[in-house]
Structure to design on (1311 residues):
């Protein structure tokens, strides 16, 4: 997700003397404006003043973000008049439209749009082929949630006005009727009055259920003989019918060719770009998914000719916008978007990439995206800059990819006094600059520093036009990254102008070795990296080192005797590692054994010359340690292209408890001015040992000022599973805001982080409870928010107390295998006496599915061709599932979920649609629950990779559909003290007290079989949680709910096979019919089955069907099931030319069914209740129910046919003296069924409409639609549209037409 922050902000300590110029200042207009777009902090203003031509000119930056608005203020042109935005690309596919449908224009120059609308083509548009590709898109699918909400509000306001007008008219009509008929006795007059009231009620109810899906855009694509062009029809967006017409649209081609864009309407003010792919079969409408990307681009490159103080850092730089934030997912990045963005950056020959996005990761410097980034950086020399993350202030919180990848420059967020006073408007800014409180910290779990450098993390920068403002304030490492990126663009501009080869290796070294330290402690590097970058100093460094080989020094550290895991630094975190000296060996060969194996390997760019660069490379390195009493290294080594090794001894035994940071770094003996050419970070977090019994740790009297952080490291006692903590504050009289974080690191897991943002309006105490892992070091980080309490000069005193609790068990995850046997659980309190009060529930169900279809295809578009030349492949898996009741479901793919960066698979995306192709939900690696009504669904899962073997292995990928059990279905499990307890029903276990040193065992019983949720097929999994202890401050409810316990564990129950039906296979009562009679019935029924299966697609097939139906009728006269099948066959016929004749045949067939049934016999049967225990009576009941249904169906279809004939002839049979066949038939139907039901209600609606009671007809139709549990039927909604149109409610007609395309789309959307 984007790494910007408004709720969070980061702390640290102030800068050193080098930042003195930022401390003592007083704002005036110019310094205030400069503080809104900070450049002085990184020396960018000084650099441009000294080198006006090196303002980013000649550099291209790829902005990997939510999309950039090319119409935003400051993003039109560069400082030297060139186009600012060279290309705008939606890499996610969220704006893609299927335009594969091709149409031709008629004689009037009209074409039929994808949804059937008639569109007039501009006669001046060139189209030699005469082929027009058409498609459509819902506007709201292209817009951000914020903009959609604004438009919905505006549209609702106008809709309400129209609805109120219609309500006023309807009330007036009713009043006029009441005045004319004050007390009507006539039944017809009463019905008229009721109809008028129904209209009022319908209009009022419609206002309550109004749901705006938004206007629809028609898209047209064609080839003008030279280029693919596209135009949009946006009439549905405009109030004026003359606006937005297709013919008035100025055609656009791919943005990179002509650099033109459009705006949907004046109301939305939203800029869009069009790109055509796949020979006109795909049109991409590119919009941004949030203001974030434009803001980022503005920080890096904005140019304001009349407001130079508000310029971005590199106003001369150009950019391409690579949208990686998928609008469909609320701006979440996807693997597809990331990969396509890298392809675009290489294709456009970009110099820099800025990516202000990121996620947590379980493995640093790992994954498909990291592999592709390494290739782009090493082979194509791109410099990749990214945000470190906003998860501070605790250590080891840097996110992927910015803070965890070696090829990427990770940037932390810094705030200066000027920024605090100007952009943040604080009354009294801090005396010196510091890191924002929320800025993520290193090291990574494998010991790398994590943060490379820092840059200003806040700015008032341009935002998209749809926000209806020119610029806004945002802060976060999202803002620090483009600030650094803009500064690097200045350096590249200078390097190109001065003929210095551009390399990410040399630029990074210059940045890190010339940064200004922020803070006085060596450990501050974990927050700020090497410090606050300085453009002017870095430029001088680059100039001086222009003849130095461009080399990256790869550091690998392995523990002795192990080839994995490989780390990039030394991170001694746990108590055992801090109690004895350790030795690290940096070497060429893994055969040499030592406690640590660390390798330094020079890396050249791909394509480097063997003879001229690799062979000649040799450096004499002087090794230094920042603290020789703790970290010792040899003094010198000779480093060649093949790498070199040396021993490091780390002795933490004499260190005090807490955080210690050191470095071993190498300096070129022949050029010491270069500074460290490689560094080996050594981070030691020596934890304090908890010796108290019971285990209580107190940190009294901690003093806090704004931005201050206190870190404590504790060896969590073995057996501890949760903590109860209390934080007491004193010494202040204004509100204070604190961040309280804890972090533990476990192998192959994301850091276990608990966090809380706590606000104290006055001195008081607050309690917390959170889970811990015994035996692992826990960091407690308490930070006063950087701007909290500024100006009060009062020190906040904090007393923090931690009490460890724990119940050790013999198995953390409980699996109930579906049998009747309970599971034995052994529990033990290792720390102090604890109350054993177990609680367990099952509250979710997962049903497994295999694909019913798997399609593998090659993506032939250029946007899917990797920089290596490989073409991306796609695998589309289709799953089918059915919901018997509406539910919120979440698709789960355990292999792929919850990983974007730390996975070797490229991407995933799913869509859930019903049988009408309506899409209800979509998602990717982080699936969300979606509410689905009862019905059948298809789930399509889309996977991408360039390796066909990987995709082949996924063709039978198991997917789970997960849903929460509702309140009645949730299963509370029982505990027992005896193994036979679940069966015998005795020995129930409630609670006991565990005494240290003594184990106690209990049994967890499986759920009772008749309590299992319905629709839980064999192989399904019930999920829930189990807890064993009880919080000291938890209420009764907290004790019964394991989810509310900080130390809860997963529990799984495998649904066993269903109970065997005892009646299945039992022989029925003796059949009284002879063998000959039964044989005749079997033959007859077989003939009818064959007859029912016949097709009637051609005239020949229909002729054969008629002959056979006549033959069967003569053979089995008055046999109702046969006559019902004949009626069914007539109804299935399509493309009938003589419709009146066809409906007459339907009436005749229906009459034959009706006449074949002894209605008196059926009626008499249903007057009496049958005995359910009497098998023969039940068989007769079933037969009579079938006969009644056949009678009702015949009457129903006859009524529909009569109505169709009346409609076709344009006359009714209501004239006096004429028999009303429809009405007579309807009354007959009423005798047998509820004509208001969803099955037969259509006839009631038509009857009310026939009598002119349109309000009653609409009411009946709405009730029928609401009661229908099946997927929506298109005919019902078409009938609703015609009724609305007939009444004249245009606003409802328009609204319903939009919904028609939601419910019944012509095709599924593209991935």
């Amino acid at each position: 997700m984007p790494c910007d922050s408004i709720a969070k902000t980061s702390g640290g300590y102030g800068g050193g003397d080098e930042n003195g110029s930022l401390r003592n200042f007083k704002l005036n207009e110019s310094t205030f404006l400069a503080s809104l777009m900070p450049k002085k902090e990184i020396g960018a203003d000084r650099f441009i003043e000294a080198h006006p031509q090196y303002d980013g000119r000649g550099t291209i930056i790829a902005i990997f973000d939510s999309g950039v608005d090319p119409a935003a203020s400051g993003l039109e042109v560069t400082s030297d008049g060139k186009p600012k935005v060279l290309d705008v690309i939606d890499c996610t596919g969220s704006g893609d439209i299927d335009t594969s449908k091709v149409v031709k224009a008629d004689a009037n120059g009209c074409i039929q749009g994808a949804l059937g609308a008639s569109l007039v083509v501009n006669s001046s548009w060139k189209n030699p082929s005469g082929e027009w590709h058409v498609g459509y898109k819902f506007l709201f699918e292209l817009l951000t949630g914020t903009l959609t909400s604004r438009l919905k509000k505006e549209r609702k306001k106008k809709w309400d006005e129209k609805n109120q007008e219609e309500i006023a008219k309807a009330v007036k009509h009713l009043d006029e009727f009441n005045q004319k008929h004050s007390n009507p006795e006539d039944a017809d007059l009463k019905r008229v009055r009721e109809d008028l009231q129904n209209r009022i009620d319908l209009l009022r109810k419609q206002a309550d259920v109004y749901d705006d899906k938004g206007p629809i855009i028609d898209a047209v694509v064609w080839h003008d003989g030279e280029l693919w062009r596209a135009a949009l029809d946006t009439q549905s967006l405009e109030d004026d019918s003359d606006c937005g017409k297709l013919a008035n649209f100025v055609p656009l081609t791919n943005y990179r060719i002509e650099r033109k864009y459009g705006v949907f309407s004046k109301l939305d003010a939203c800029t869009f770009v069009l790109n055509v792919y796949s020979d006109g079969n795909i049109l991409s409408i590119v919009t941004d998914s949030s203001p974030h990307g434009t803001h980022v681009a503005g920080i890096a490159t904005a140019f304001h000719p009349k407001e130079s103080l508000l310029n971005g850092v590199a106003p001369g730089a150009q950019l391409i916008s690579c949208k990686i934030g998928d609008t469909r997912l609320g701006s979440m990045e996807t693997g597809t978007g990331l990969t396509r963005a890298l392809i675009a950056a290489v294709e456009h020959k970009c110099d820099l990439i800025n990516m202000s996005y990121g996620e947590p990761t379980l493995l640093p410097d790992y994954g498909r995206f990291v592999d592709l980034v390494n290739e782009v950086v090493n082979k194509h020399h791109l410099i990749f800059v990214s945000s470190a993350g906003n998860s501070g202030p605790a250590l080891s919180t840097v996110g992927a990819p910015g803070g965890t990848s070696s090829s990427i420059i990770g940037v932390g967020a810094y705030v200066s006094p000027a920024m605090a006073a100007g952009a943040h408007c604080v009354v009294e800014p801090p005396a010196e600059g510091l890191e924002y409180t929320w800025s993520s910290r290193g090291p990574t779990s494998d010991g790398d520093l994590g943060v490379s450098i820092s840059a200003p993390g806040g700015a008032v920068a341009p935002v998209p036009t749809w926000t209806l403002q020119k610029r806004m304030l945002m802060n976060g490492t999202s803002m620090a990254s483009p600030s650094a990126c803009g500064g690097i663009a200045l350096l590249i501009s200078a390097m190109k102008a001065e003929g210095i080869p551009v390399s990410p290796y040399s630029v990074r070294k210059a940045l890190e070795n010339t940064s200004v330290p922020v803070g006085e402690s060596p450990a501050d590097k974990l927050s700020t990296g090497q410090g606050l970058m300085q453009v002017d100093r870095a430029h001088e460094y680059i100039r001086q080192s222009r003849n130095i080989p461009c080399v990256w020094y790869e550091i690998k550290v392995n523990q002795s005797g192990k080839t994995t895991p490989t780390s990039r630094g030394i991170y001694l975190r746990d108590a055992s590692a801090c109690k004895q000296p350790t030795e690290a060996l940096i070497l060429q060969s893994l055969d040499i054994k030592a406690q640590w194996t660390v390798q330094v390997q020079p890396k050249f760019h791909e394509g480097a010359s063997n003879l001229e660069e690799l062979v000649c490379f040799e450096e004499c390195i002087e090794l230094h340690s920042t603290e020789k009493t703790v970290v010792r290294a040899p003094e010198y080594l000779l480093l060649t292209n093949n790498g070199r090794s040396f021993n490091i001894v780390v002795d933490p035994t004499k260190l005090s408890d807490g955080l210690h940071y050191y470095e071993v770094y190498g300096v070129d003996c022949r050029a010491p001015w270069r500074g460290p050419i490689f560094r080996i970070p050594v981070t030691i977090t020596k934890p304090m040992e908890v010796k108290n019994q019971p285990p209580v740790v107190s940190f009294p009297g901690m003093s806090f000022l704004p931005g201050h952080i206190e870190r404590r490291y504790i060896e969590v006692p073995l057996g501890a599973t949760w903590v109860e903590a209390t934080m007491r504050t004193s010494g202040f009289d204004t509100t204070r805001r604190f961040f309280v974080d804890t972090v533990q690191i476990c192998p192959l897991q994301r850091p276990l982080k608990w966090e809380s943002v706590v606000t104290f309006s006055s001195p008081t105490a607050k309690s917390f409870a959170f889970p811990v892992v015994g035996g692992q070091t826990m960091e407690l980080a308490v930070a006063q928010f950087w701007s909290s309490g500024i100006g009060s000069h009062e020190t906040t005193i904090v007393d923090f107390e931690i009490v460890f609790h724990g119940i050790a068990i013999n198995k953390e995850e409980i699996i109930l295998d579906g049998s009747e046997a309970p599971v034995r659980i052994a529990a033990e309190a290792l720390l102090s006496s604890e109350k054993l009060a177990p609680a367990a529930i099952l509250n979710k169900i997962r049903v497994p599915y295999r694909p019913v279809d798997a399609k593998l295809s090659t993506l032939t578009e250029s946007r899917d061709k990797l920089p290596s030349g490989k073409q991306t492949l796609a695998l589309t898996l289709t799953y089918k599932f059915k919901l018997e009741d509406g539910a919120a479901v979440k698709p789960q793919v355990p292999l792929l979920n919850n990983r974007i960066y730390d996975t070797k698979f490229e991407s995933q995306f799913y869509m859930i649609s019903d049988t009408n192709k309506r899409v209800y939900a979509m998602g990717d690696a982080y699936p969300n629950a979606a509410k689905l009504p009862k019905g059948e669904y298809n789930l399509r899962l889309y996977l991408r990779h360039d390796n066909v073997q990987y995709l082949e292995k996924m063709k039978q990928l198991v997917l789970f559909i997960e849903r929460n059990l509702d309140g009645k279905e949730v299963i509370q499990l029982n505990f027992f003290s005896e193994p036979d307890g679940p069966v015998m029903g005795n020995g129930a276990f409630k609670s006991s007290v565990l005494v240290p040193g003594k184990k106690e065992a209990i049994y967890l019983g499986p759920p009772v079989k008749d309590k299992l949720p319905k629709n839980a097929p064999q192989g399904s999994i019930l999920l829930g949680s189990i807890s064993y202890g009880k919080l000291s401050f938890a209420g009764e409810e907290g004790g019964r709910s394991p989810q509310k316990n900080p130390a809860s564990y997963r529990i799984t129950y495998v649904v066993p096979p269903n109970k065997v039906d005892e009646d299945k296979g039992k022989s029925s009562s003796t059949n009284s019919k002879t063998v000959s009679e039964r044989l005749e019935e079997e033959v007859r029924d077989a003939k009818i089955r064959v007859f029912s299966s016949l097709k009637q697609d051609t005239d020949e097939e229909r002729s054969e069907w008629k002959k056979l139906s006549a033959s069967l009728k003569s053979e089995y006269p008055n046999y109702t099931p046969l006559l019902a099948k004949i009626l069914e066959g007539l109804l299935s016929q399509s493309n009938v030319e003589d419709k009146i004749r066809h409906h007459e045949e339907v009436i005749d067939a229906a009459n034959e069914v009706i006449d074949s049934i002894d209605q008196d016999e059926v009626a008499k049967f249903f007057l009496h209740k049958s005995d359910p225990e009497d098998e023969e009576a039940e068989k007769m009941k079933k037969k009579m129910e079938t006969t009644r249904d056949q009678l009702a169906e015949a009457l129903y279809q006859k009524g529909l046919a009569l109505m169709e004939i009346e409609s076709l002839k344009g006359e009714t049979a209501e004239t006096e003296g004429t028999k009303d066949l429809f009405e007579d038939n309807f009354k007959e139907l009423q005798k047998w069924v509820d004509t208001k039901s969803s099955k037969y209600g259509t006839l009631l609606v038509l009857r009310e409409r026939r009598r002119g009671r349109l309000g009653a007809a609409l009411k009946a139709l709405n009730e029928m639609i609401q009661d229908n549990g099946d997927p929506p039927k298109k005919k019902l909604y078409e009938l609703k549209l015609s009724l609305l149109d007939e009444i004249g409610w245009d606003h409802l007609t328009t609204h319903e037409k939009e919904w028609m395309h939601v419910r019944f789309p012509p095709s599924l959307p593209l991935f």
